[in-house]
Amino acid sequence: MATESVNLVCSQCSSIVRVPNARLSDAPHCPTCHALLLDGKPVTLTAASFDRHVGRTGLPVVVDFWAPWCGPCLAMAPYFEQVSQRLSTKLRFAKLDTEAQPAPAARFNIRSIPTLILFRDGVEVARQSGAMDAANLTRWLESKTTGG
Fold it and tell me: Which partner from 46, 92, 102, 133 sits 20 to 30 angstroms from 53, CA to CA?
C-alpha cells in the first residue's frame, strides 16, 4: 500500500517537510525558508548533510559521486541535471564532490568516478560506475525504480 505523503528535505535549510503525494507536482515550498522543495536541481551534499538528505527523503535519492578534475564527471553533469529536472517529482538528485567531501565516498567504497548510487530509505539499492548520457541514465533509473 502506497503512502499518501512523503518527507522531503529542503535543499536550502535542511528542514524535513511532509508533502502529500498528490501535491508533489504543485511546486511545494518549504514552510521554513520558502524555497522550492522540488526545483529540479541536484542538491549539493556535504559529509554533514549526507545522511539527512539520503536517509530522511521519502523519494528514492540518486547521488552522483564526482570530482571537479574528472572529465567524464564534467561531461555527464549536464545530463544528470537534465534528468533531474525531468524526474524531479519521482526522485531526488544529489551530488557529492568526493575531493571536498571524502568521508561519504570512503564510507560507500567509491573506487571510481563518476559513480551513481540509488538509495531508498537511506539504503543503497543500485550502483553504476561510469558516465552516462540522459537516455541511458533515465533508462537505468527507471529500471531500478519501477522494476522494469
Answer: 133
User: Quick one: what percent of the chain has pLDDT higher than 90?
Assistant: 95
Task: Give per-residue pLDDT as tens, 8-64.
Answer: 999 999 999 999 999 999 999 999 999 999 999 999 999 999 999 999 999 999 999
**Which of the residues 10, 13, 33, 73 is marked catalytic?**
73
Question: Within 13 Å and on the Cβ side, how many CA atoms surround 16?
Answer: 13
Query: 13 catalytic, yes or no?
Result: no
Domain positions in the chain are 40-145
Q: Note the CATH number of domain 40-145.
A: 3.40.30.10
Helices (H), 12-70: 50-56
C-alpha cell at position 47: 559529509
Residue 73 is a catalytic residue = yes
Coil/strand/helix, residue 109: coil
